[in-house]
Amino acid sequence: MAQECPENYVIVGQVSGLFGVKGWVKVYSYTEPRENIIQYSPWFVKSADGWSEIKLQQGKRQGKGVVALLDGYVDRDSSAELIGCEIALQKDQLPKLDKNEYYWNDLVGLKVVNQDQIEFGVVDHLIETGSNDVLIVKGERERLIPYIWDQVVRKVDLDNRLIQVDWDPDF
Length: 171
What we know:
Elements (H helix, E strand, L loop, with lengths): L8 E11 L4 E6 L13 E5 L2 E5 L1 E7 L2 E6 L5 H5 L5 E5 L13 H4 L3 E4 L4 E10 L4 E6 L3 E6 L5 E5 L4 E4 L6
Parallel strand pairs: 8-13
Antiparallel strand pairs: 1-2, 1-7, 2-6, 3-4, 3-7, 5-6, 8-9, 9-10, 10-11, 12-13
């Protein structure tokens, strides 16, 4: 049975492959910029046995990606078991945000309603488009709603798990 990510964790990446023969792994980082993931230690890695804490020994940018050496993984064979594992941090490891700033992870699962209280569904995930982030909201149909504060997104209420948007239900 799959184990859910603990509420106080934020998924920040995934082990995507092996790098060299000395235990280094390739990491697909969700942080921006990508190499920000290596500023944090320990990592919490989800394997088939559940979540475990692993110290980051070294990490660096490698081409367009990131590579890391984790405590206890000394060769290619031992590191191979990490491929596909999610990487998380505890929320208190992350910088505190200013008012009206949120980590994407905080928005996923929130109900989205417009100013007329018409429910659109819940935030399934977000995507980055270059000009602005976009909420992917799944309900009776999928909606792509731009995350533009004050213009489209009017209010985020984490306590009540609600996002209020200025958005036409026909879009």
